[in-house]
UniProtKB/TrEMBL annotation, chain A:
<protein>
    <recommendedName>
        <fullName>N-terminal of MaoC-like dehydratase domain-containing protein</fullName>
    </recommendedName>
</protein>
<dbReference type="InterPro" id="IPR029069">
    <property type="entry name" value="HotDog_dom_sf"/>
</dbReference>
From TrEMBL, chain B:
<dbReference type="InterPro" id="IPR002539">
    <property type="entry name" value="MaoC-like_dom"/>
</dbReference>
<feature type="domain" description="MaoC-like">
    <location>
        <begin position="16"/>
        <end position="113"/>
    </location>
</feature>
<protein>
    <submittedName>
        <fullName>Acyl dehydratase</fullName>
    </submittedName>
</protein>
<dbReference type="InterPro" id="IPR029069">
    <property type="entry name" value="HotDog_dom_sf"/>
</dbReference>
<comment type="similarity">
    <text>Belongs to the enoyl-CoA hydratase/isomerase family.</text>
</comment>
<dbReference type="Pfam" id="PF01575">
    <property type="entry name" value="MaoC_dehydratas"/>
</dbReference>
């Protein structure tokens, strides 16, 4: 069975034991080229040197120390299952700086099975990511991922 | 940039309207190292029985709203808190409109802050994102350091 063979993979009924699991963590540099390209993909001004706020979340996921595939696998899912964003929150305690390298930590904060009338069964998994610079807490991002469980 | 001194409860945020470009999604997929094929692979979309137009990434949809807030508030570093729920997909070629309204104006440690209700609509379609944000309208005056006080 392929690691991402959704048809053959079995899902647990309860993933609450993953809550509290820490990401390996790492670091992320808001390089000038990333600042430029992110603004350009948003059809915003790429020559504005102030990093776009969406880079807080991008820095978090890029620096969390694992791939999307790794994270999905913690919940017996893969990209072909169609995981979706649920909710998002970014809180910036300090402005982002172009050229700065942020230390990233993060963890799973919730995992809940739900059943929708139309959507059927799905798991909502919440995680949070923290950015630190020189010991100061710069930002926290919370995000939830919705994993459809068509076979549950 | 608008006149921030006149901001009050009920003030509208100048809306931002963009046409979603699938080429930008490919760049964002690379920036995010996001393997999810629905953002770039039209054959994968067809295999999933979905509309063959690629699905815009959540961070891009968030970013349009943050761009609107930043332009209004006078800088990308003025978005302090941003919270949204993902309600629907945005597809390549869609025209989306970011908009918002001020619900509270308050003074805090960082200065004068506006709390806003925000949403991203697909023009002619449904609401894709909705939520709230806090943006800095005017920074609090710098507090003189002890040394500055000693010198005056």
């Amino acid at each position: 069975m392929s690691e991402h063979d959704a048809s053959a993979r079995r899902h647990a009924d309860d993933y609450s034991d993953r809550v509290g699991r820490e990401f390996p963590g790492g670091s992320y540099t808001i390089t000038p080229w990333r600042t430029w390209l992110v603004a350009d993909t948003l059809l915003d001004d790429p020559w504005d040197e102030t990093p776009h706020p969406v880079l807080a979340w991008m820095a978090g996921v890029a620096g969390m120390g694992m791939t999307w595939d790794d994270l999905f696998a913690w919940f017996d899912a893969g990209p072909e299952d169609g995981p979706m964003f649920g909710e998002h929150r970014t809180t910036l305690h300090l402005p982002l700086r172009r050229g700065a390298t942020y230390d990233v930590t993060g963890r799973i904060v919730s995992a809940e099975r739900k059943v929708g009338r139309r959507a059927g069964a799905f798991d909502v998994v919440g995680y949070e990511l923290d950015l630190h610079l020189a010991g100061e807490h710069v930002a926290r991002c919370y995000n939830s991922i919705v994993f459809p469980r068509r076979d549950a | 940039m608008s006149d921030r001194s006149a901001v009050e409860v009920g003030s509208p945020i100048p809306p931002l309207q963009v046409t979603v470009d699938p080429e930008k999604m490919k760049v964002m997929a690379a920036l995010l190292s996001d393997p999810t094929p629905i953002h770039f692979d039209t054959r994968a979309l067809a295999a999933l029985g979905m509309d063959e137009r690629p699905v815009n990434q959540g961070p891009l949809n968030m970013g349009y709203l943050q761009t609107m807030l930043a332009r209004w508030a006078g800088g990308r570093d003025r978005v302090l808190d941003f919270r949204v729920r993902f309600l629907g997909n945005v597809l390549a070629g869609d025209v989306v409109r970011a908009h918002g309204v001020v619900t509270e104006v308050s003074d805090g440690d960082r200065g004068r802050v506006a709390t806003c209700d925000i949403a991203l609509d697909v023009v002619g379609g449904a609401v894709a994102l909705s939520g709230t944000a806090e943006v800095l309208l005017d920074e609090a005056p710098a507090v003189p350091s002890t040394r500055d006080q000693e010198l005056t």
